Task: inverse folding
């Protein structure tokens, strides 16, 4: 697609890919992706999107990075003048070559929630269909090759199914939630199995247990394998909501965000172990483990709740916190997502 400016960048060591997002509205600056070295040094802009590319419609624009961080799937805003509305379409960008292409470009005008397969060859996504702008109750899970070819429908369900949407580690099944059910979709046969479990978020890995799930309406995180049989309790907090679980590389531990009425802090807990809350100097809006699992990179909350203007790193034990990157407070942009290639 035209107008996407890609400047390939490399780093001598581990680096974070950061989505810098502008709020909706006329005159908002373009969204960008930056590379931030974890050992220190200057951040480099990798992608600059056209004005309004992903900022004209709420959740449009949230990116999904492929394993290894060489490609990104972005949900781009679409104008639908005949309907007087805005839709979304998924665009896959190669961060090395700068090439980009729409995923299933001849499809309906509302595709969302891209999720990469473990081998990076396919993308699953949620399709609400042309009737999304007419409040349709129909939602579908689709799959396509990373080059946009081979798009096909896997699953049709009532509205509310489709989030979260993640691949199982074997690349043969997809997990999706909603309406108090966790559906396990078989990619080859398009059949599915329902588990009576309402989840808000999921994290997966190859080791056992494979899946960590934030149980909707409760301050609990549970762990289990696919197919779902037995579930183990990891976290059972009180008076908080839990979000964004992430498995620690090489360990049976999770990080997650725990939000109370005033702050959002980073929690860490082991399967069958105790919870600890990291005493960082600032709250967090997102957090990811470094590739070696020794530290956590997080988007630090600024003066306004859920507005992050700096990227920080802290040890897994809560020690050694330091700033990696800080945005100009005069600019009306925020750090929305951070991804660390393994």
Result:
């Amino acid at each position: 697609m035209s107008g996407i400016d890609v400047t390939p960048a490399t780093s001598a060591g581990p680096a974070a890919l950061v989505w810098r997002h502008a709020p909706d509205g006329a005159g908002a600056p373009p969204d960008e992706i930056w590379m931030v070295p974890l050992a220190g040094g200057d951040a480099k802009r990798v992608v600059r999107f056209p004005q309004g590319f992903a900022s004209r419609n709420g959740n449009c624009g949230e990116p999904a990075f492929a394993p290894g961080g060489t490609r990104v799937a972005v949900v781009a805003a679409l104008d639908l003048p005949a309907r007087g509305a805005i839709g979304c379409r998924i665009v896959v960008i190669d961060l090395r070559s700068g090439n980009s292409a729409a995923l299933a470009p001849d499809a309906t005008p509302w595709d969302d929630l891209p999720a990469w397969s473990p081998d990076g060859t396919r993308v699953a996504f949620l399709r609400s269909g042309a009737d999304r702008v007419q409040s349709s109750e129909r939602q579908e899970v689709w799959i396509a090759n990373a080059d946009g070819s081979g798009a096909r429908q896997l699953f049709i369900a009532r509205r509310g199914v489709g989030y979260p949407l993640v691949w199982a580690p074997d690349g043969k099944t997809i997990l999706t939630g909603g309406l108090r059910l966790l559906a396990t979709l078989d990619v080859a046969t398009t059949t599915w199995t329902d588990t009576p479990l309402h989840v808000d978020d999921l994290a997966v890995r190859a080791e056992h247990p494979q899946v960590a799930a934030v149980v909707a309406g409760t301050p609990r995180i549970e762990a289990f394998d696919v197919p779902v049989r037995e579930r183990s309790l990891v976290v059972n907090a009180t008076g908080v909501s839990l979000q964004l679980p992430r498995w620690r590389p090489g360990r049976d531990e999770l990080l997650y965000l725990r939000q109370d009425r005033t702050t959002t802090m980073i929690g860490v807990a082991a399967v069958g172990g105790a919870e600890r809350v990291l005493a960082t100097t600032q709250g967090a809006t997102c957090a990811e483990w470094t590739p070696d699992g020794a530290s956590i990179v997080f988007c630090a909350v600024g003066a306004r709740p859920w507005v992050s203007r700096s990227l920080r790193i802290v040890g897994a034990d809560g020690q050694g916190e330091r700033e990696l990157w800080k945005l100009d407070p005069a600019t009306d942009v925020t750090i929305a997502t951070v991804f660390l290639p393994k």
In short: The chain has no helices and 29 strands.
